[in-house]
Fold these 4 entries.
Entry 1:
Amino acid sequence: MGRAIAGCIINLISSTHPHFKSLLSEGLWGFPDNKLNRRRWSALKPGLRALLYFQHKEVKGVWGVAEVVEVSESREPVHYWVENPAGYPLQVRLRLLQPVELAPTPTNPLNPEVFDGVKPLRKEELAALGASMFRPTADRWSILLFGDEPPATYSSAIFDKILDEYTLRNVKPRPAKPRSHDEIVDMIAEIGRMQGKFVEKEVEIDGKRIDVAWKRIARGVPYAVFEVSIEGDLYADLVKLKHAFDAWNSIAVLVTTAKRREEAERWISGAFHEVKQYFRVIEIEDLVQLYEKKRQYKELENKLGLL
């Protein structure tokens, strides 16, 4: 089932624009009241993810990720907006999530230098991902909506790709240890996204949940499923994978420790011998190595300006 509004891109113009101070000081932004702005602004809801598009260090692109905290209409003057204090009544308050997590206040404002270390998604990269950005005539105080119903103009799948790409190039590397169950699940999900797959976690099957599924198309069935088995009932984990194969004809991947691998392979050769060729057993350290090499390759692509 699609999402009516999955997220948005808010055009903040430039980190040197006078209005940018209202974002840095209070997380506040405003739009002029016209038919198009009002239609899109009225679709914004608290909790919605907002990608922040502006020019910084002479580069236009997505430089940050925020969460919509409040949507309100106000005709009261805003002292930051000196040239027209009451001219932007369609207002939104934002809490920054990346590159830092902060709800700025006048006593604890952001510094625009916080964006200096960001690897942005440039305007041309956004177009390559399916979002043709703001035309010159509309390159001010604009909102783009992503979802699967009007008034969205781009699909939720495109928003997910943009958000994933920003996160992949800006997320801090995970510590080498400990390798918890959730860390491994996140790595599998990120590897899938880096390979251009549609990724879903906690996929329900037969009243149970598979850790991660990769799909070739958003509405398709999983072609590969992953279960992380560090401790607990190894046989039960293999049964879940077998059920996924039976239901979806998926490749069944068990990610486990070197210590458990031998036991897993005995079960697969015994109780699951009829579908043995569809099972894969991967040791956690091998998966971590794959993840790190994928990230290095992705960073090199970004450095060379390739997507």
Note: The chain is about 30% helix and 25% strand.
Entry 2:
Amino acid sequence: MGRRTVFGIVAVAGVVGSVLTPAEAASASCQAPAALIHFDAPLPRLSTALASGEPVDIIALGSSSTQGIGASSPKASYPVRLQAELQQLFPKNKITVENLGIGGQLASDMLPRIRQQVIPRKPTLVIWQTGVNDAMRLVKVETFRDNVIAGLDELKRAGIDVVLLDMQYFPKADKVRDFPRFLVTMRQLAEQRNIPILQRYAIMKHLVTTAQYTPQQLLAADQFHPNDLSYGCLGRMMAEALQVEVTDFTKAMAKRKYPAEAAKQAGNTGPLPVH
């Protein structure tokens, strides 16, 4: 079976056309443009901890697609896969990803949980998955936006790094009123608040439009929740994005600490003055 690697993610050829078994899903992966697996905002607390070998505690906050509905077992949920991927990438760190996903929750339901369950745990990073239930239940986009801002402000005041995770792709998404506006709102909030976002909807749709997989292969029997394959891909892509962020952060810190050496290596040092 042929393999090809794009941006560090291995794709297994020859599996398109039928629903994958759990074993096939575990070995398969996906390709996506590098731009979709790259954060445009820093994660200083996480990057410092990972770069220095410190323990890292991550909380996955969200609804059913964080909880793992649609997976063949809890071990196939994306937080479990993310922990395994990160532990391989950063073997010197003790990494824990705690799953605080509860099916059906709106952003407003998660606000009290941020105060009561998330902040007291003092995590290094929170990955906040939200939006799909608000869109499906016709919550006003403005109300959703205000609730997400309130949650982000709470986490920022607590000094916790945050990554936003937007909605999953599913065939009937384009029939949901305001669904595109929710996606745009999350991207805008990420940009305005200088917070990284992993655009899961765009990634999953790319996998379908490029004929890597069919929606049936990426989704559970209800054709709404992700399955083992898409949870595994999400865990790997999130880990990849975090690894790139740590690498970029480490390089930036090195340039600040040794600016003359960085300039010398770049060939930018000028001649010494003559007296």
Note: Residues 170 and 223 are 7 Å apart (CA to CA).
Entry 3:
Amino acid sequence: MTAKALPPLFVSHGSPAMVITPGPARDFMLGLGKAYEKAHGRPRAILSASAHWETDKPAVSTAEKPETIHDFSGFPEELYRIRYAAPGAPQVANRAADLISAAGLPVACDAHQGLDHGAWSPLLLMWPEAEIPVAQVAMQPHAGAEHHIRLGAALAPLTKEGVLVMGTGSATHNLRDTFTRMRSGNADTPDWARAFDAWLDEKIAAGDRTALADYRRLAPGAVMAHPSDEHLLPLHVAFGAAGPGAHGHRLYNGFDFGSLSMGAWAFDPAA
């Protein structure tokens, strides 16, 4: 057991090419692992809640040697040669499964699930030595935001056991708009993206669970920012994992390709 809970994180993982393309968000990610360790110590394991693993019911990965999944196409060949050879964390995954079950949620264990790019691409920058064991927990986009806060809350005891619960998705994720801006060369950030990102930061700082759970109805520009839920739901898991009364603070503020927020937050457990 640790004396203090490890604050969960949410990071926007951006394009897979971020791992090989210079830029401000990449620079931030390169320093985040060291900064986290300096403030809180090195996690004994990481449980990644990635937007890119979707299941019908909650699931955890119990692979001892998780494969690096290249779940994207059309990128430079260099990306497909990358391997993030972190060991798995089956004991942590099984502990997570027990906690999820105890919270009254169904859960499955998957011994074959590898690390998708939502998990390995930020970790490659944060902890390039790949020494910290990693497991994943899956998203259920059909179940909505409140479900994922509840899922995160079930995982909260892990934060006092040396485990970093890290959500990885995107603070805004309208790829149609992003690709349109890339093709036209328009890197301006639209009002809807700025408004949603600012609202999200305000509600995270306030620890407003009700608003975050009902973001699609309450947030300005919500449907434009997230035509579908899956890339924001990992944030709800991280928020829930910080426990009741938690508040968050922003670690990074910036946009790639105009409308893709690369926002990152840490969630501080209540005193």
Note: The chain has one domain: 9-268.
Entry 4:
Amino acid sequence: MSIPDADPRFGAPLFKDVGTFMGVPASRDLSQVKAAILGIPFDCGLHPVRLGARLGPAEIRRQSSLVRLYQPPLWQVNLLEALGVVDCGDVNVVLGDVVESYRRIEAALDVLFDAGVVPVTFGGDGAVTLPQLRAAHRRHPALVVLHFDAHTDTYADSSAGATPGSNYKDYNPSTTFTRAAEEGIVDAADSLHVGPRGTVTDGTVFEHTRGKGFELVTGSELGRMGIDRLLAHVHERLAGRPVYLCWDMDFFDPSCAPGVFTPTWGGVSAREGLSLLQGLAGLDVVATDVNTLSPLHDTTGMSGFLAATCVMECIHLVYRAIEAREGG
């Protein structure tokens, strides 16, 4: 005997899935799906004191119970239903093995792209973005990255002469976009890093980032520009390009998001960050990831709630992009 999908007495299923993002169906059937949730519970475990980003996906799902379906006037349709969103669960990563985990993350993204589905993922630390970019580039050769973060994640290689992939010094959260530029999987000249600020471990990192071809808008420059000018610049720069949106939760100030991998003072408020996300509507967003939530340092759960809210904002951006592509 199997449980029926719907019960006519209630006009709805009698049982529902638990533990998924906002209660969407847990499914790997992508036949009617335009966007899918995927967790990537991997971190390199390199930070000396801040650990736990691998727990981010579970916490984002848990806190997503506080996120609601509608946000007028931005959207008044059920985005989850309109896109047929399902939660595919987590990539089966191998903790402690960055190279094998990268292979699995990339393969998982391949499955979604092959099905014509837009990945909406959450990590994990910033290292999980690189294998996703590899998969996205195969479908979108003109791919650009729009990266919001307190750090550029484009540090110089700290192990000159080592074989790429041989250890964490080659692939780690701080070298994600260095590797992406070297591999040619993003068009660095039209890609942007927005928000790097605060103290760093290498005083030449900004120069190194620009030397790899990326445009860098520092946190100080963002403060002088303001949100409206930045958004105008982003839209002008990225119009018509396939955009991979990477949103690192430490882009926010620790006063509103303390539970992150590398907190850095001087970031944006929740209102400013969400306004920026909302202002990206109209870009051709082909994949998104929200990363670097560290629940062990999120005693009230509000950082997780904010991360889940950011995921919903990303779903709205995906909806708008698909609507534009389909001529809606």
Note: The first helix runs from residue 56 to 63.
